[in-house]
Amino acid sequence: MRSFWHLEKGDFFDGIEEGKEHFLRSAQRIELKKNDIVFFEGDAGGACFYVASGLLRIFCVTEAGKESTFFLRTAGEIFGLWVVLPDLPLDRQAFDDLLSRNYALARRVITVMGSRLRYLGDSLSAQTCDVRHRVGRLLLSLAHESLRDPAAWEQPLALPVSLSQGQMAAMVCSTQPTVSETLHQLQDEGLIDIRGRGIVIRRPQALLAALESPADRA
Fold first, then answer.
1. Distance from C-alpha of 126 to C-alpha of 92, rounded to nearest angstrom
2. Is the pTM of this model over 0.85?
3. Which of 104, 124, 129, 184 maximizes the CB count within 10 A of its CB?
């Protein structure tokens, strides 16, 4: 769907294998355990990172102890210079040198940054919508990598990541009870199935249509 183009990820190095070889040759590999804290707000950042495998969550904790989740980074994604979390880190100067020698790689970086700016803009805009809309958009964004085939929008789809309701609440700026109530409302409407911590979108196209306002459809 055109409205979700900025969520397309894939492997950052698809089609530019030479750039990947250069990157990994200059990088340092770090293996992390589940729930490891690898970066704190305010730490100096001067590197970019490629996620070889696993799932990373970028979040902040308020003085009251409440978490707000901003992004999930999955295998194949690259990020850094202004957002820094490690899996395979490369220092700033080495990365600048790499980009100066590889036009395809530099162009891919520009494309990714443009997509993420669009994501941030959409996230800010979504805060004016009700929780139902924000939760529904979150579910579709989490499932988007499985929706590249247009036919997939008409079929049941299990979310590829498992998030607690508290984590979902942190991503949509709400509370766990409100998110729980919203998910059960979507289930009562026949749009999703809740299976423990797993969620199946019965028909992604129907969920998207249920969220769209007349202005969105125009």
1. 33
2. no
3. 129
